[in-house]
Amino acid sequence: MIRTFETDAEYLQWCKTNGDGYVLNAHRSLSPVSLVIHRAHCKLITQYQGKTQPGGFVEGQYLKIGSRDAGKLKNWARKERLAHRGKLDGIARECKACM
Ligand SMILES: [Zn+2]
Hints:
Shape: globular
Number of strands: 5
Helix content: 25-40%
Low-confidence stretches: none
Oligomer: single chain
Structural class: alpha+beta
Bound molecules: zinc ion
């Protein structure tokens, strides 16, 4: 099962209650370099820092997909990339800080 999020509040709540789950972070363009999988407790995707303002996690240019199963996120990335571009590149990388 995967979760999508409409608001940062909804997203951050899911991360809090699924800290050992996984989050796929992606630019809405699904550009391959933007596809990164994190643990749900990773600071890089749960704390506003640098240019990330409130709303910036899922309400702006980026989206997040949550799951208890990292494999489901990789499958999602693969399928969406195929749907958008017809190519099989851009399988999500894993965050070096938390994975
Ligand atoms: Zn991370």
